[in-house]
Amino acid sequence: MNIVEMIAKLEAIRAEHGDIEVLHYTDMDQIVGIGYANVRVAEDGEFPDDWNMPEGFTFVELGQ
Asked: pTM of the prediction?
């Protein structure tokens, strides 16, 4: 995904969902391209408690 595509995708998400968090998951020792930007809603117990992502937490997930 190039910069123009990412900006357009994020602007569309912001228009629909407001100014929500943007998160990216990857191994820290790798450089990877971003292939998608999707809105996710955390489900109960999906993430460890210390991640501060309670059930219903809405965010943009960037992935490869």
From this structure: 0.76
What is the DSSP pairing of strand 58-63 with strand 21-24? parallel
CA 52 to chain centroid, in Å, comes to 14
Assign 3-class secondary structure to 14-45.
HHHHCCCEEEECCCCCCCCCCCEEEEEECCCC
Q: What is the pLDDT of residues 8-61, one digit of tens each?
A: 999 999 999 999 999 887 666 777 788 889 999 999 999 888 888 899 999 999
Nearest in space to 61 (alpha carbons), one of 27, 15, 25 = 25
